[in-house]
Amino acid sequence: KILLLDESTSALDTQSESIVQAALDRASIGRTTFIVAHRLSTIRYADKIFVINGGKVDEVGSHAELMATEGLYYNLVKRQQQKDDENETIETEADATVVTNGVFKPELTRAFSIESRRSEDIDLRRKSSVAIKEKKESPSLVRLLGLLKPDKYLILLGSVMAFLMGLTIPAFSIVFGEILGTLSQGSTDKIQKDVLLYSMCFVAMGIGTSIAAFLQIYMFGICGERLTMRLRKMVFTTMLKQEVSWFDERDNSTGALCSRLSADASSVQGAAGSRLSTLCQAVSTLGAGVVLALYYSWKLGLVIICFIPLVIASTYFQMKIISGQITKDKKSREDASSIAVEAISSIRTVASLHQENAFIDNYSNALEKQFKKSKIRAHLRGITFGIAQSMGNFSYAIALLYGSKLIVDQELNYGDLFKSVEAVIFGTAMVGQAVAFAPDYQKGRVAAVHIFKLLDRMPKILVNALTGDKPTKCEGNVLRGLSFDVQKGQTVALVGSSGCGKSTIIQLIQRFYDTDGGEVSLDNNNIVNLNIPWLRRKLGIVSQEPVLFGYSIAENIAYGDNDRKVELNEIIRASEKANIHSFIKSLPMGYDTPVGDKGTQLSGGQKQRIAIARALIRDPEILLLDEATSALDAESEK
C-alpha cells in the first residue's frame, strides 16, 4: 500500500490545510507514504526527509536531525515560519484591508467602490445564461443560402454544371429511344449508319458529362470547405466573446463546445453546401423527363408522373423520422465528448487512480444509448429508403405494361415509348438519390439552428451595458455590503478564509460578472458604462493557477499585450522584473523554449513568474494578484 501526496495542501489556507492534513494523516496510517511538500509543516513527523537541491539530494534525516544540522532544511523552515507568523498577524487584525505604498505607476486616479445601495445584501449570482437549446424550428432557406454569398459565382457556375448534368440523362433517353426505334425497323445499312451516329452522340455526351461533373464537384467542394472554415471562425469568435458565466453552463462544457465547433460547422454543408448540386441535378433531370414524357405521349406521361408523389412522400416520412432524433443524438455525442475531454485532459490523475476502465465504461455507456436508438431508427430509415428506391422499378413495370397497350392501339411507336419511360424513370431515380442525402440535409438544418442561435446571441454583459440589466448572477450571497476605496498608487491586500469572496472581487473588477446591487467604479465611473476591452487592457492579472499556452516562453509573455507587436527587449525587461530572466537564459533555446501544453514542462514557480512577466508586459495601470504565491515554496515565492 503506497500513498503519494504531491503538494496536496499547497493551495489551501491555514484553516483548510489543518483539516485536510488531519485527513491525510489518518489515511497514511499503515501505508508507505511519499510526500512532495512546499509547506514544511506537513512533513514535520515524516520518518525520513530528503532535501533536494539542484536535482540532487542535499540532506537526509528526520525533522529533528535536519534542524540540528542548521543546513538548507533549517533555513527553509525558518523562512517559512517567519512568513507564517506574518500571515497570522495579518489575519488576526480586525480590519482585513491593508494599505501600503504603491508598487506600480498608474496615470489615472481611480477609486474602486462596492457599495450597497439598498438594505438587501449584495447578491452575486451566476445566472444561468440561456444555453443553446434545441427547438422545433428551422433556419430560413434564404439565410442558409446567404452563408454561400461570398462564393456566389462559384455556386452559380456549379449550379449550371449540375443542371447540365441533370439534362444529360433525358438526352440519353432520347438517343437510347432513337437507337431502339432504329433497331426495330429499317434496312441494315440504315441501322448501321444510324447506330454509328447515335454512338458518337453517346461519346460526345460522355465527354460533356465528365467536364460538367468535374466542374460541379470542384465548385461545390471548394464552396463547402470555405463555408466550413467561415462558420468555424464565426462560431469560435462568438464563443470567445461570450460572458464568463456562459461557460459555467453545463451545456457549454469544453467537450460540448468542441463538438459544436467541429461537427456543426461541417454538417451545415448538408443543408447549404454540396448537397445543393444533387438537388439541382435531380430537379433538372426530373423536370426535363416529365416534359419529354408529356411531349411524346401525354397519356403515358401522366401514368408515370403518378409515381412521383409516392417518392416525395417516402422522402418526407424519412426526414420526419430523422429530424425527431437528431437533437437527442447530438446531446449524446456532446456527453460522450465531455467524458473523453475530461479523461484526456486529466490523464495523469486518471492513470494514478487506475480509473482508465471506469472512464472507458462511462464513455461506452454514453455511446450505447445512442447506438440502441440508432438501430431502431435505422430500420425505419431502411424501410422508407427502400420504398423510395423501389418506386423506380414499380413505375418502370407499369409504364412498360401501359406503353405496350398504347403501341398495340397504335397510339405510340416503339422508340417514343422508351424515350418517355427512360426520361421519367431516370428522373425518379435521381430523386431517390436525393433521398439518400436526406439525413445529411436534416442534420445540416439542425446544425444551422444551433449555429445561428449562437451567432445571434449577444453577450449578456454587453447587453447590460446598454440596458442596465444585471443578468450574471450565481446562487447564494457571496458579498454582503462590502465597501472600500483604493487611491492612486496604493496596494490593497484582501485576506480571509476560503470562500469569503476574495477572488469574487477580482472577477468583479475584471467584469466577468455583474452585481445585483452596488457598483464597481473606476475614476467615479461605473465600469458597467465602460468599454470592456478598454477596461481589461488597463488590468494585469496573475492568478493562483497560471495558464500558459503551448508555445514558446517569449510568445507566452508577449500574449500579455495583443494590441501591438511586442519586441524581445520588452519581453526581457518584463522577465527581469518577474525574476525569471536568469532561468530562461540558462535554457538551451532561451526564450524560444516551448513550455508544453499548459506549461507542463515548467515547475509551478517558473510558470508563475512567466505569468507575472506576461502581466507586466502591457504595463498595466491596475495589477491584480489573486493568491499568486499560494502554491509556491518559500524559495520560489521569494
TrEMBL record:
Q: Which GO terms describe its molecular function?
A: ABC-type transporter activity; ATP binding; ATP hydrolysis activity
Q: Name one GO cellular component term.
A: membrane
Highest taxon, organism lineage? Eukaryota
A Pfam family for this UniProt protein? ABC_membrane
Q: How does it sit in the membrane?
A: Multi-pass membrane protein
List residues of the ABC transmembrane type-1 domain: 156-443
Please state the protein's primary subcellular location: membrane
State its location(s): Membrane
* Keyword Membrane appears in the UniProt entry: yes
**What CDD domains does the annotation carry?**
ABC_6TM_Pgp_ABCB1_D2_like
* Sequence ranges assigned to domain ABC transporter in this UniProt record: 461-638
Protein's UniProt keywords contain Transmembrane helix: yes
What are the UniProt keywords, alphabetically? ATP-binding, Membrane, Nucleotide-binding, Transmembrane, Transmembrane helix, Transport
Transmembrane feature ranges: 153-176, 196-224, 302-323
Query: PANTHER family, per this entry?
Result: ATP-BINDING CASSETTE SUB-FAMILY B (PTHR24221), LP14331P (PTHR24221:SF645)
Q: Which family does it belong to?
A: Belongs to the ABC transporter superfamily. ABCB family. Multidrug resistance exporter (TC 3.A.1.201) subfamily.
Tell me the protein's name.
Answer: Uncharacterized protein
- Which source organism? Medioppia subpectinata
